[in-house]
Write a structure and sequence with these properties.
Blueprint (H helix, E strand, L loop, with lengths): L1 H18 L1 E12 L2 E7 L8 E3 L15 E7 L2 E7 H5 L5 H31 L6 H4 L6 H4 L5
Antiparallel strand pairs: 1-2, 1-4, 2-3, 4-5
Helix pairs in contact: 1-3
Amino acid sequence: MALFFALPSRSLVQDLRSHGESAAATVIGVDSKPKYVKVRLVTSAQAGTEVKLTDYAGMLPETETGASMIVTYDPKDPSRILAQSWVEDPPANLPAYGTSALAVICLGLTTAVIWRRFWILRTFGPEEPSASSKGGKKPSDKSTGNTKS
């Protein structure tokens, strides 16, 4: 689950670092329901293009309409765009960290329960095997229905 939250954001940042282009942009729309930040590229080969910033781990930069910002975008797909500061130094990916912590806690508790079960069975288990595991008594002639005399 943690990988589900971490890998897409991480791969976007790596892609933009390797072949992204930086450009100045103007914020033309900010809304919190549904959450988006829409920008218009000003200085680039894609000048005039309006795109929504890609969220990073469910977060968008805090900004307001009319503000300027430097963005990094993928020239092949301008919809893949992040604030340049987030490409250089991504913020903490809290959903991935939270699910990782929960996974570690669950693994630790499961291991503790298993070791406790082993300890209980070794300490308080039966001293000698039950009769059924020894093979029990041989069946008598009466119980098998043997009629020969």
